[in-house]
């Protein structure tokens, strides 16, 4: 893709700070550095988001994530945790439309980074939860 900033990074048209590379995966420091070591892991093959992955691309990319995460952990022994984030489509905060996974090291509760989840458990009955699960399962089986 010609207008994709990550494709340009892969093709060395734009500089980056690489931390890992093989024939199919490229990992580099996110220039925002939400926390020290914030790394992006991307497939070299252009896919817009998770919905475009084929099994091979997913297998190859996700197999490398633990290796890179362990590299972060060994490099930064003061790291106390790691957020793994993948945003898909604009409403879910995807801003670069070449699929990527954020590895965000966590050092303390004062990292200036927070994720919160609403607890909507009381909004769904057992019947609704069962129906939702059944619908998703049937869709996956029939895909």
TrEMBL record:
| GO terms under biological process | nucleotide metabolic process
InterPro entries from the UniProt entry? HINT (IPR039384), Histidine_triad_CS (IPR019808), Histidine_triad_HIT (IPR001310), HIT-like (IPR011146), HIT-like_sf (IPR036265)
Catalytic center at which residues?
100
Location of the HIT domain: 5-113
Taxonomically, the superkingdom here is Bacteria
A molecular function GO annotation: catalytic activity
Which SUPFAM superfamilies does this one have? HIT-like
Which Gene3D superfamilies does the entry link to? HIT-like (3.30.428.10)
Q: Where is this motif: Histidine triad motif?
A: 98-102
Query: What is the protein's name according to its record?
Result: HIT family protein
């Amino acid at each position: 893709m010609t207008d994709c900033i990550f494709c340009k990074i892969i093709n060395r048209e734009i500089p980056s700070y690489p931390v890992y590379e093989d024939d199919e995966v490229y990992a580099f420091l996110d220039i925002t550095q939400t926390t020290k070591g914030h790394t992006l892991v991307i497939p070299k093959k252009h896919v817009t988001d998770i919905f475009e992955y084929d099994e091979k691309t997913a297998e190859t990319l996700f197999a490398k994530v633990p290796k890179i995460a362990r590299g972060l952990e060994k490099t930064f022994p003061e790291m106390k945790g790691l957020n793994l984030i993948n945003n898909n489509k604009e409403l879910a905060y995807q801003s670069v439309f070449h699929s990527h996974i954020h590895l965000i090291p966590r050092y303390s509760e004062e990292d200036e980074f927070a994720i919160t989840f609403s607890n909507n458990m009381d909004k769904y009955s057992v019947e609704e939860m069962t129906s939702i699960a059944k619908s998703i399962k049937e869709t996956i089986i029939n895909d």
